[in-house]
Amino acid sequence: MEQPNVRLEAMTEESLDDVLKIQKESFGKESRSDFLNCISRSEVYSYFVLVDEKKNVIGYYGTMNISGDGELLTIAVKTEHRGKGYGELMLRSAVLSAALKGSTKMFLEVDETNKPAIGLYAKFGFVPISKREKYYGENAAIIMEYDIEKNAK
């Protein structure tokens, strides 16, 4: 099966309904007001959607850049499009976006039970540096770091 042509676009209010559906299926929650706040503050936040040639939203991600550090705040791919490399494509874009905004390191937190995400991050070069117990209810959050400067060489 041939993959569709995809591209990243800035997240807009018009794409939020699709983003919220993916957020709900991925994380069991929706937060329109959080997304609206973040997409209106592009000096700190960068939010993008991955769309196919028909403008269907396949996935999304959001980053924050402050004082030389980037943070991957969220990333998700629509269930039927997982395992096709779209998460890795968006992760590469997120790191590049952080680097272009002057970040030298990138951080993220992930639920310790989310093995596919942890595997993707580790494959990309993120390393675990800390743990927050019971951050996701009963589950801990693993804090991971990616050294943009070191990995750019």
Separate helix tally:
5
* CATH architecture grouping: 3-Layer(aba) Sandwich
| Pattern of helices and strands | EHHEEEHEHEEH
What does the main sheet amount to? 7 strands, mixed
Percent of residues in beta strands? 35-45%
Fraction of residues in helices? 25-40%
CATH class: Alpha Beta
Query: Which regions have little confidence, pLDDT < 50, spanning 5+ residues?
Result: none
CATH topology: Aminopeptidase
Let me know the average pLDDT.
89
The CATH H-level homologous superfamily: Gcn5-related N-acetyltransferase (GNAT)
What are the defining features of this structure?
about 150 residues; alpha+beta; Aminopeptidase; seven-stranded mixed sheet; 5 helices; 7 strands; about 40% strand; globular
Describe this structure in words.
The protein is α+β, with helices and mostly antiparallel strands. Helix content is 33%, strand content 38%. A 7-stranded mixed beta sheet has the order 1-2-3-4-5-7-6, sandwiched between helices. Strand 6 (127-136) and strand 7 form a beta hairpin. The protein is globular and about 40 Å long.
Kindly summarize this structure in a few lines.
The protein is of the alpha+beta class and 153 residues long.
Question: Which SSEs are present, and which pair or pack?
Answer:
Blueprint: E1 6-10, H1 16-27, H2 32-39, E2 45-52, E3 57-66, E4 69-77, H3 86-100, E5 105-111, H4 115-124, E6 127-136, E7 139-147, H5 148-152
Parallel strand pairs: 4-5
Antiparallel strand pairs: 1-2, 2-3, 3-4, 5-7, 6-7
